Amino acid sequence: MDARDWDERYAGTEMVWSAGPNQFVASELAGLRPGRAVDLAAGEGRNAIWLAEQGWEVTAVDFSLIGLEKGRRALAVHPAGADLHVDWVHSDVLEWTPGPVGYDLALMAYLQIPADQLHTAVRHAFTALVPGGTLFVVAHDSTNLTEGTGGPQDPDVLYTAEDVLAALDGERFDVERAERVARTVPAADGHGGEPERTAYDALVRLVRTA
């Protein structure tokens, strides 16, 4: 899907994603000391706004103007919106370049791109970090197509934790977590009326060491 496709998808419904943060973003990043964060492929801004609530100064990057505008509106009506710091940046994550000041956290949540583009996006995110900064990636795992539920049905835009680490070959970092994780999907999300099903995601959390 390109920027126009995502604009149409975001424009077609009030919220494509939940208003709150992704469950893994919240559970894995809640304990980090706030600093500067970049949310690459921020979409409607749910994770960016949650990070701002935790005290982060956030740069939210996405190629969908509609998604970013929905994020801006959500921040504007937030009870603490005037005190939250989110800079909404319209850019393709493959073309975005950070400024001279590095980030303490780079987040990529459910970015759906082919393997060659994934390599570029992961390296962009990693090089945006200061030494000691955290890279956090969560995505639909390749195995979700045959073993899980929901998510993209195109295997070319699915990947594993190992694929993310391979994109950083030659870089220096400490892996804190890199594995497949399970996510419970309720019946309301649409999978044939079953009470719940399991989706599988790839999760990577690492710290840049140099």
Structure report:
The protein has one domain: Vaccinia Virus protein VP39 (Rossmann fold), CATH 3.40.50.150. It contains seven helices and seven strands, in the order ααβαβαββαβααββ. It has helices at 3-11, 23-29, 46-53, 65-76, 115-127, 144-147, 161-166; strands at residues 36-40, 57-62, 85-90, 103-109, 129-140, 173-186, 196-208. It has a seven-stranded mixed beta sheet. β4, α5 (115-127) and β5 form a beta-alpha-beta unit. α1 (3-11) packs across α4 (65-76). The longest helix is centred in the middle third of the chain and has 13 residues, at 115-127. The termini are far apart.
Task: For this entry, give a set of tags.
about 210 residues, alpha/beta, about 30% strand, Rossmann fold
In terms of topology, how is this protein built?
Blueprint: H1 3-11, H2 23-29, E1 36-40, H3 46-53, E2 57-62, H4 65-76, E3 85-90, E4 103-109, H5 115-127, E5 129-140, H6 144-147, H7 161-166, E6 173-186, E7 196-208
Helix pairs in contact: 1-4
Protein name: Methyltransferase domain-containing protein
Pfam families: Methyltransf_25
Keywords: Methyltransferase, Transferase
Counting structural domains, the number is 1
Give the low-confidence spans.
none
Q: What structural class do you assign from the helix and strand content?
A: alpha/beta
Profile the largest sheet.
7 strands, mixed
N-to-C terminal Cα separation, in Å? Answer: 35 Å
Widest sheet, order of strands: 3-2-1-4-5-7-6
- The CATH superfamily name is Vaccinia Virus protein VP39
Rg for CA atoms: 16 Å
GO biological process, one term: methylation
Protein name: Methyltransferase domain-containing protein
Keywords: Methyltransferase, Transferase
InterPro entries: Methyltransf_25 (IPR041698), SAM-dependent_MTases_sf (IPR029063)
